[in-house]
Amino acid sequence: QVQLVESGGGSVQAGGSLKLSCTVSGNTDSIKCMGWFRQAPGREREAVAAIYDRGRTYSADSVKGRFTISQENAKNTVYLQMNSLKPEDTAMYYCAAKGWSGSWVVQSHYDYWGQGTQVTVSS
Questions:
Q1: Looking at 1-123, which runs of residues are DSSP E strands?
Q2: 24 vs 2, 44, 86, CA distance in Å?
Q3: What is the mean pLDDT of the chain?
Q4: What is the pLDDT of residues 54-111, one digit of tens each?
Q5: Based on the number of CB atoms within 10 Å of its own CB, is 88 exposed (0-12), middle (13-18) or buried (19 or more)?
Q6: Segment 21-57, tens digit of pLDDT
């Protein structure tokens, strides 16, 4: 089994920054991709960014140039550095993990999920 624990959420003013962390534990041999998703009230969950075990990264157009996903393998941790935050970035942010198959943007392709961490951006 794999466990994911997110941290780092909080409240910030527009233009500010936050760094989310996701620590992975358990049997991680099958994990090849880590993703971040977010869900705002009344909206569907959407993919934000993903990183594969060899370092290739992907991000949504809405966060390109502002959010950066990275990983620290020694700590089994994935980060999401969020800069120039906007009120529309307000959402619950979830960390997810999957193997090689499937698309990074499709939430049903992920096998494991964290409990989420809230990010609130005020104008």
A1: 2-7, 10-13, 18-26, 33-39, 46-52, 57-59, 67-72, 77-82, 91-98, 112-113, 117-122
A2: 7, 25, 28
A3: 96
A4: 889 999 999 999 999 999 988 899 999 999 999 999 999 999 999 999 999 999 999 9
A5: exposed
A6: 999 999 989 999 999 999 999 999 999 999 998 889 9
Nearest to 35 by CA among 91, 111, 121, 118: 111
Q: Which of 53, 57, 68, 38 is nearest to 100 (CA)?
A: 53
What's the alpha-carbon Rg for the chain, to the nearest Å? 13
Instruction: Answer left, alpha or beta for residue 84, where phi above 0 means left and psi between -120 and 50 means alpha.
Output: left
Q: CA 78 to CA 95: how far, in whole Å?
A: 9
Q: For residue 30, what is the enclosing H or E element?
A: none
49, 85, 104, 115 from 16: Cα distances, Å:
19, 6, 27, 24
